[in-house]
């Protein structure tokens, strides 16, 4: 019981959009595909939904071919739900009639609509409202309830939270995750928001320039990105030149640090990547490895700009410190910076 | 992510065929010119009579268009930005002349003041009838202006006149150019009003030539010059407009504008506005009503049958125009590109041609290729569709662009087949646009005189042709009831246009 994409490629005219993408989504899993705009993530979703056809490759659901060089199942016979960016509610129909839209005429019962509204945590009083009378978050939940009427095996969510305000976004996202959890449906979300992708489900996939560069559990993808670009896309990074020692450790500006993951592929020159959250600062009078070159107050604390090394090999990084600790630093002071938890190794840059 | 897709070949084929059909009038003129050859054409065109027609027509346009612009923009500014007493009444009254067909207005004037005739008579009637075509777009543009702009100008030390000429007027450029072009095209195309006032233009001369020698070389040569004049206007307007686009006017202003107090000029403004209303609406209508009560026994049977036939033709024209406009709009909105712009442009070009040319072309084409269709309802309706296509196309296009394709996709993902998805989602959302466009076509067709005179099946009498038959034989009392019906038939269309210009929703 899985959704399987095999070697999907797609181009619009001369512009390649997706390049040899393969993916397997186990039944009931939630997977988020994250990528910047133009990475082909929406196109991938539209291929699965049946609104576009792949140039090469195939798509299968539970062993049934949905899309292949030989045959194509049209969108309305795929049993795949789709929630568009703006919800795509039918503006001429009430909430209840929107939800009942795809039900067979005989099965359009009030009870079933109410059941779905309840599942989607929608107030039953909203049933007779028109879409324009709903908030953005409510519209998205109606769109989700409407998609669930078909009891789809898979539901596709195309940036469903991007049109919402920041506060509403987190709240709606949690509500949608809960609804999907309750209904046990396989869900595939595309987004350009890394936090949204990392917190959505069991798996996260990173798309870049039409390729699926990494798939895995959110924690492991964040912890061990396959390359620097993925690392930088998923969070802030500090990248410093390093020298591999014999015993699974490197020497760098942070001193000798253990290697957590080695993605250098045996390159001669390597760089060490750490997340700013791993840095541990101490004001020091003795030996130091960094200088504070700037302090910016953020109200709740301060953001220090640190410079490691000097001359052309100098590296800058920002590090947040809480308010009570901020007074200890001033521009120009020397600090010693240590790294907690090891580094990830990549081939040297440039 | 917007993706450019190729349009379905069937749709493109349908639209290409329809566009070619709409371009038959152009084809007719070109074919006639080629068939005649240069010598015959030159002999027909370069003669004193044509020079006189040219002078008349050019004078009509270069005096008439600026006059309508002054009245239209001035009227819009008075009711929208000044404290003119009774401005709400004037706002409607300035649009009202659109409900009086030009040939009815000229009948009203000529039967009241028989000495009115020639260029000045033609100008009087044409300017008072057509200035709302500038007034309505100018009104819409002024309403869409953010009053903050004018306030900023005042805070920079400008007086009322400077604000108007340096801030308001420049932003009305597109509305004025568009409205002025429409007025100019109407001036070229009008037959009835000028024929009544014994003022000769190309259009009236073509009708006379047609009556004398059918669709012969003389009519064709005059038609060629008329089409060239019309193309000159289109090119001039497009050059003057340059790269500027008709921007969408916002829903409303953030706060109501401060109105300019007219002070001691108030009586002058009221008198001027009243004079405009009197000449454009009150005199012609009073004259019609006077003949109505003068007449004695009205021919109710003839009136009823003419109204019935008019409504049938008008409704058929509306249905056909919507059916033709739909593929154009679909192609333009769903598959935008050079091809769809070109085909849409062809439709607009065809409908800019004077209706007399459309009628002549259809006479010649049906006789040559489908004699069975000559003087049938089919040909009349085809002419109405070509002439009034933009009235259906503009609202349909706007309506369709309000229906995102994602709605159809959502319906398909809910297990509804593509065709049914369109039927259940897109069509219901288009109904208001279909109704508005259909109504405007039907009301236009109901008042059409020139093409109907040439093309109507023998025995078919519309309200307009019945009116014309009576009025042109100077039987004023008999014409009056038909004139009243024509005015009544126009009212809904004018209400629609007024509502559109002022951003009011009739739904």
TrEMBL record, chain A:
Matching Pfam families: ABC_tran, TOBE_2
CDD domains in alphabetical order: ABC_Carb_Solutes_like
Domain of life according to the entry: Bacteria
Domain ABC transporter intervals: 3-234
Record-level Gene Ontology MF annotations: ABC-type ferric iron transporter activity; ABC-type quaternary ammonium compound transporting activity; ATP binding; ATP hydrolysis activity
InterPro entries: AAA+_ATPase, ABC_SmlMolc_Importer, ABC_transporter-like_ATP-bd, ABC_transporter-like_CS, ABC_transpr_FbpC, P-loop_NTPase, Transp-assoc_OB_typ2
Claim: Transport is one of the keywords in the record: yes
Enzyme class: translocase
Signal peptide as annotated in the record: none
EC number, as in UniProt: 7.6.2.9
Matches recorded under SUPFAM superfamilies: P-loop containing nucleoside triphosphate hydrolases
Residues passing through the membrane, by range: none
Keyword set includes Translocase: yes
Protein name as catalogued: ABC-type quaternary amine transporter
TrEMBL record, chain B:
GO terms (BP aspect): transmembrane transport
GO cellular component terms attached to this protein's record: plasma membrane
Cellular location(s): Cell inner membrane; Cell membrane
TM regions (residue ranges): 12-38, 58-78, 90-110, 116-136, 174-199, 219-240, 268-293, 313-333, 345-370, 376-394, 427-446, 479-499
Gene3D superfamilies per UniProt: MetI-like
Positions of the ABC transmembrane type-1 domain: 54-237, 307-497
Family matches, as PANTHER family: FE(3+)-TRANSPORT SYSTEM PERMEASE PROTEIN FBPB 2, INNER MEMBRANE ABC TRANSPORTER PERMEASE PROTEIN YDCV
Protein name according to UniProt: Iron(III) transport system permease protein
Organism: Mycetocola miduiensis
